[in-house]
Write a structure and sequence with these properties.
Blueprint lengths: L1 H13 L31 E7 L3 E7 L10 E9 L4 E9 L3 H11 L1 E5 L6 E8 L2 E8 L4 E8 L2 H7 L25
């Protein structure tokens, strides 16, 4: 009995969408828009994999995922913004965990929209107090992804051009000079 209680307590505490009260998204204990990425120092469980150009900060892959006790979790990536806070957490799961994960997200967050169950590529979105969550998968895919976006990060991601420059304004060609009649 004691083992079952301890297991249940550990599972609840380590859920990918575990959060403090108030509908705050904090996957893997990383509160969106608040947790400092400096906390994710490189080591055997965390590898800095480069820069998240769209966000302005580092990209960190979290390894040794068994410690989170989340069945089916196969990959975890954290994108940090220029202020060194968590902007996006992307969790990849084996397809076998889909019903369990989507059920827990439905129970915890307000559903914003979902595609039909028979759709070729399925999409579901939920709202949290500090951002939004997306679940994406292909009908015949072996994995699915849950993306936890901090407020404003999704718009910043989709607005990023990749060039680092502002979009060029339209160039207006000057009107051709009017022809003057030659003097007689």
């Amino acid at each position: 009995m004691k083992k079952a209680f301890l297991f249940a307590a550990a599972l609840c505490a380590s859920l990918a969408h575990a959060e403090p009260a108030g509908n705050i998204a904090a996957p893997l204990g990383l509160e969106l828009g608040k947790t400092r990425c400096a906390r994710l120092t490189p080591g055997p469980n965390r590898v800095n994999t480069g820069k998240a150009q769209w966000a302005g900060g580092d990209t960190v892959e979290i390894r040794n995922l068994d410690r989170f006790n989340l069945p089916g979790l196969s990959r975890a990536i954290v994108n940090c913004d220029a202020q060194d806070t968590v902007a996006l957490v992307t969790l990849t799961f084996d397809r076998t965990a889909l019903d369990d994960v989507s059920g827990k997200l439905d129970a915890r967050y307000a559903s914003k929209r979902k595609t039909e169950a028979n759709a070729e590529n399925a999409y579901a979105e939920w709202v949290a107090a500090n951002g939004s969550l997306e679940l994406l998968y292909a009908r015949d895919g072996k994995q699915f992804t849950v993306a936890y976006w901090a407020k404003g990060a999704k718009a910043k991601y989709f607005g990023y051009s990749g060039s680092g420059e502002k979009k060029a304004e339209a160039v207006v060609a000057p009107a051709p000079a009017a022809k003057l009649a030659a003097p007689l």
